[in-house]
Specification:
By secondary structure, the chain is α+β, with helices and mostly antiparallel strands. The chain has a domain of 244 residues: Phosphatase 2c, domain 1 (4-Layer Sandwich), CATH 3.60.40.10. It is 65% helix and 12% strand. The protein contains 22 helices and 15 strands. The strands form 4 sheets. Strands 2, 3, 4, 5, 8 and 9 form a 6-stranded antiparallel sheet that branches. The protein has a 5-stranded antiparallel sheet with strand order 1-15-10-6-7, sandwiched between helices. A hairpin with a 4-residue loop joins strand 4 and strand 5. The longest helix is centred in the middle third of the chain and has 71 residues. The N and C termini lie far apart (83 Å).
């Protein structure tokens, strides 16, 4: 039965429908009442037919599209995601065509939540970023906050905590600007999870302390205490204080309302991790079994809710059938007895079959659940191994960043400059190197090693080591002599007795020597040319079309040296191919949806930008180049490491 409120709201729907209000007001009031009513799904969908009729009568396309979205929302609220997705995708191209930005943002938000609930965080991130960009465009702070918060959760889910922290910072700014402090504990919790993934216990503890501090100065309700317990348990699991973690999770389980199955699932999963850390595999297994039981209960609760909705619809039908059976019994009792007997025999046979089927499917279900528990344990082990690998790579990143010249070192060695450096992955195959000579001259190298990520980073360390070895020597070498030296030494570094196993990777490099006292530039390049910008004219100083290679057969090449007179105000630009090769560009509409055309940025476009901004300071040039690359790339993946250096004479 509907509650008293339900009757009041459904009666109000009829009153609004039969009123003399104009179609626009009538549509909005019925929409509002439908969202508030506790009536079932079928009832709401029937009233959607009424909304659609009002929208068509008023000839307002906005309301017609909105009605499609409302149907999707009602299916979403009842967890019928397949129907919800159908209606959202039906409405999306129509909303885009009419430029209904708020409606588009709402659709992307629902699609993101569905993807996240289904465990597809990468797809969820795609939708939430769509939502966030529209919210920025229309200056909707509420939508910016919710989409940024959702993005932080899903970036943590795919182990990209730095991106999660970026969006959490956006949420914090909005919350503080609007003085909406109630959201801060949740944001601190998300931030704590990010630092856990970054393996930073100090900063993770700072966030937990912030949550505790907030709750000490505010009156806690049950939900806040539950959040504090859960975040505390998660932190102590991270720092391997498993007994303290168990204390918080067990304390929390006593506070969770009996109907909140999602909270039970989270806390029992935390208990599973804690007992697993203590090597108490029996309790870890028991916790995981209870976790699955609550998952099963959640499904059963949804089924019961849907069954109750349909029950009232069939009550009258059942009563009519019972009266018809009674009438037939009065007409022919003997015939009915025979039928009852046959019916009992049939029911008995079906019952036996049903019981056998139940046992069969129960066995299948039990076996499947055991397999799922085993898979969950294996998944935990794989996740742990993946985390250790990522921790190692992040540590490698710190090592690689540690050998690169700092901003102060570059300022002392090369003077006014900028460096735009964007690795594709955590570590990079691109790097830059600088060395200052006694005679007021300096060397600068911009290098692109074979590959990117871990292989490229290894090669970059080898190249950096060889350059430092040259720099430590007493004998002065010009750029071409240095490249020749590298071309000879690199095969020796990777020496192999078996020629078939000889490594043939290498690097492209531009190397310059600038004598500021005599205004001279010496340049040598291995596949990497450089630009000289003077008086708004850009000149390409070409490199040898030959890489520095670990292949012994490449040793014979002699790199040429180019000497150029300089003047005050000249700009020398060194670069790898990552900037010019990035895919992106303008968007194109295909089947009603916008997609990036996927063109390369190209060197010509880079040269035009450099000439356009050449008169500005170096910091401004870097910012505008970075903005241009980001806008060109959009939501496409970065395809290569980017390194671009500018030096003003």
């Amino acid at each position: 039965m509907l509650s008293f409120i339900g009757f009041s709201q459904t009666d109000s729907l009829g009153v609004v429908l039969n009123s003399k209000l104009n179609d626009t007001t009538k549509y909005k009031k019925i929409e509002s009442l439908l969202y508030d009513t506790e009536a079932g799904l079928e009832f709401k969908l029937k009233w959607c037919d009424t909304l659609e009729a009002i929208a068509k009568q008023s000839k307002q396309e906005k309301f017609i599209i909105k009605t499609i979205v409302i149907r999707g929302v009602f299916y979403f609220n009842y967890s019928q995601y397949d129907h919800a997705i159908t209606y959202f995708y039906k409405a999306l191209p129509l909303a885009e065509e009419l430029k209904l930005k708020r409606l588009q943002a709402g659709i992307y938000n629902y699609l993101g939540i569905i993807s996240s609930d289904q465990g597809n965080s990468k797809k969820a991130i795609y939708y939430f970023r769509k939502n966030y960009n529209i919210a920025l465009e229309i200056n909707d702070l509420g939508s910016q906050f919710s989409s940024a918060n959702n993005l932080s959760v899903d970036y943590n889910n795919i182990l990209m905590p730095n991106m999660a922290l970026y969006y959490i910072s956006k949420c914090e700014k909005i919350a503080k600007d609007k003085k909406s402090y109630d959201f801060l504990p949740s944001l601190y919790g998300n931030k704590m999870e990010s630092y856990i993934y970054l393996n930073d216990p100090v900063k993770a503890k700072e966030q937990l302390d912030s949550i505790n501090k907030y709750f000490r100065i505010t009156q806690q309700d049950n939900d806040q205490q539950m959040a504090l317990n859960f975040f505390s348990g998660s932190y102590y699991n991270f720092v391997k204080e498993y007994k303290r973690a168990i204390n918080f999770f067990e304390k929390n389980i006593k506070l969770i309302p009996s109907t909140d199955f999602q909270e039970f699932r989270k806390n029992y999963l935390g208990l599973n991790a804690a007992y697993y850390g203590l090597k108490d595999y029996e309790k870890a297994y028991s916790s995981l079994v209870i976790y699955y039981q609550y998952s099963d209960s959640l499904v059963n609760a949804e089924k019961m809710q849907k069954a109750n909705e349909t029950e009232n619809s069939y009550k009258n039908f059942k009563v009519e059938k019972e009266l018809e059976i009674q009438k037939l019994n009065n007409i022919n009792k003997s015939l009915q007895l025979k039928r009852n007997k046959a019916f009992l025999i049939l029911i008995s046979s079906l019952s036996l079959l049903l019981i056998g089927g139940i046992f069969f499917f129960y066995k299948l279900f039990r076996d499947k659940r055991k397999a799922n528990v085993l898979l969950e344990v294996q998944k935990a082990e794989i996740t742990h191994q993946k985390k250790e690998i990522l921790d190692s790579i992040y540590y490698s990143k710190r090592i690689q960043e540690g050998i690169l010249p700092t901003e102060n070192e570059l300022k002392q060695k090369v003077g006014e400059h900028f460096v735009l450096y964007k690795p594709k992955d955590i570590v990079s195959g691109d790097f830059y190197w600088a060395s200052k000579k006694i005679d007021n001259s300096f060397l600068m190298a911009c290098c692109d090693c074979t590959g990117h990520g871990v292989p490229g980073a290894f090669m970059s360390l080898v190249a950096y080591s060889l350059l430092n070895k040259i720099d430590e020597g007493d004998q002065h070498k010009n750029p071409s002599e240095i490249l020749n030296y590298l071309n000879i030494e690199l095969p020796r570094f990777f020496k192999k007795e078996d020629p078939t196993q000889q490594i043939k990777d290498g690097m492209d490099m531009s190397l310059i020597e600038i004598d500021r006292k005599n205004f001279k530039l010496n340049f040598a390049g291995a596949n990497n040319s450089i630009y000289l910008i003077r008086d708004s004219i850009l000149q390409v100083i070409k490199a040898d079309k030959q890489p520095i290679s670990a292949d012994v057969d490449m040793r014979k090449h002699i790199f040429k040296n180019t000497e150029i007179d300089l003047k005050t105000g000249d700009i020398i630009v060194m670069f790898t191919d990552g900037f010019a090769d990035q895919f992106g560009g303008p968007t194109a509409r295909i089947h009603g949806n916008l997609y990036r055309q996927g063109k390369k940025f190209m060197y010509k476009r880079l040269e035009e930008l450099l000439m356009k901004y050449a008169t500005e300071d170096m910091k401004s040039i870097k910012q505008k180049l970075e903005t241009a690359l980001s806008e060109w790339q959009g939501d496409l993946e970065q395809i290569d490491d980017v390194c671009l250096i500018g030096i003003r004479i």
